[in-house]
Amino acid sequence: MAQYYGEAIRVTSMSDEYEYISAHPCPNCGGRWKVRMQALLKDAQGRHYDRVDVICRQCKRCQAFLFDIDSFFEGSRD
User: Fold this and answer.
1) CB neighbours of 12 closer than 8 A, spacing ≥ 6?
2) How many structural domains compose the chain?
3) What is d(CA 48, CA 14) in angstroms, rounded to the nearest whole number?
4) What CATH number should be reported for the domain holding residue 9?
5) pLDDT digits (tens), the chain, 78 positions
6) Is residue 77 part of a domain?
Protein backbone atom coordinates (compact mmCIF):
# COMPACT_ATOMS: atom_id res chain seq x y z
CA MET A 1 0.00 0.00 0.00
CA ALA A 2 1.07 3.53 -0.51
CA GLN A 3 2.56 4.73 2.76
CA TYR A 4 1.47 8.31 2.21
CA TYR A 5 -1.53 9.93 0.59
CA GLY A 6 0.78 11.45 -2.03
CA GLU A 7 1.50 7.94 -3.33
CA ALA A 8 -2.19 7.06 -3.82
CA ILE A 9 -3.26 5.78 -7.24
CA ARG A 10 -5.53 8.27 -8.99
CA VAL A 11 -8.72 6.80 -10.41
CA THR A 12 -11.87 8.28 -11.87
CA SER A 13 -14.32 5.48 -11.04
CA MET A 14 -14.83 2.52 -8.73
CA SER A 15 -14.38 0.18 -11.68
CA ASP A 16 -10.91 1.72 -12.21
CA GLU A 17 -9.99 0.57 -8.70
CA TYR A 18 -11.01 -3.02 -9.33
CA GLU A 19 -9.34 -3.06 -12.75
CA TYR A 20 -6.11 -1.86 -11.14
CA ILE A 21 -6.29 -4.51 -8.42
CA SER A 22 -6.97 -7.24 -11.03
CA ALA A 23 -4.04 -6.07 -13.13
CA HIS A 24 -1.63 -6.29 -10.16
CA PRO A 25 -1.69 -9.88 -8.83
CA CYS A 26 -0.05 -11.02 -5.62
CA PRO A 27 3.72 -10.41 -5.81
CA ASN A 28 4.38 -13.60 -3.80
CA CYS A 29 2.58 -16.18 -5.92
CA GLY A 30 0.77 -14.39 -8.75
CA GLY A 31 -2.60 -15.22 -7.21
CA ARG A 32 -5.77 -13.21 -7.50
CA TRP A 33 -6.93 -10.86 -4.77
CA LYS A 34 -10.13 -11.04 -2.75
CA VAL A 35 -11.38 -7.79 -1.21
CA ARG A 36 -11.62 -7.98 2.57
CA MET A 37 -12.49 -4.38 3.43
CA GLN A 38 -12.93 -1.00 1.84
CA ALA A 39 -12.79 2.34 3.67
CA LEU A 40 -13.30 5.97 2.73
CA LEU A 41 -10.54 8.20 4.12
CA LYS A 42 -9.96 11.95 4.17
CA ASP A 43 -6.65 13.76 4.65
CA ALA A 44 -6.08 17.01 6.56
CA GLN A 45 -6.73 19.04 3.40
CA GLY A 46 -10.10 17.35 2.85
CA ARG A 47 -9.06 15.17 -0.11
CA HIS A 48 -10.81 11.81 -0.38
CA TYR A 49 -9.18 8.39 -0.62
CA ASP A 50 -10.37 4.82 -0.83
CA ARG A 51 -8.37 2.15 0.97
CA VAL A 52 -9.00 -1.38 -0.27
CA ASP A 53 -7.61 -4.23 1.85
CA VAL A 54 -7.19 -7.50 -0.02
CA ILE A 55 -6.02 -11.06 0.62
CA CYS A 56 -4.48 -13.42 -1.91
CA ARG A 57 -6.78 -16.33 -2.66
CA GLN A 58 -3.77 -18.69 -2.93
CA CYS A 59 -1.05 -17.78 -0.43
CA LYS A 60 -3.18 -15.61 1.92
CA ARG A 61 -0.84 -12.60 1.73
CA CYS A 62 -2.58 -9.41 2.85
CA GLN A 63 -2.08 -6.09 1.10
CA ALA A 64 -3.78 -2.71 0.90
CA PHE A 65 -4.25 -0.41 -2.07
CA LEU A 66 -4.81 3.32 -1.63
CA PHE A 67 -6.70 5.18 -4.33
CA ASP A 68 -7.08 8.94 -4.76
CA ILE A 69 -10.80 9.35 -5.39
CA ASP A 70 -11.02 13.10 -4.88
CA SER A 71 -12.31 13.53 -8.45
CA PHE A 72 -15.50 11.72 -7.34
CA PHE A 73 -16.24 14.66 -5.05
CA GLU A 74 -15.45 17.58 -7.37
CA GLY A 75 -18.13 20.21 -7.20
CA SER A 76 -19.33 19.06 -3.78
CA ARG A 77 -16.93 21.24 -1.79
CA ASP A 78 -18.06 24.36 0.02
Assistant:
1) 71, 72
2) 1
3) 13
4) 2.30.30
5) 445 788 999 999 999 999 999 999 999 999 999 999 999 999 988 999 999 999 999 999 999 999 999 998 876 555
6) no
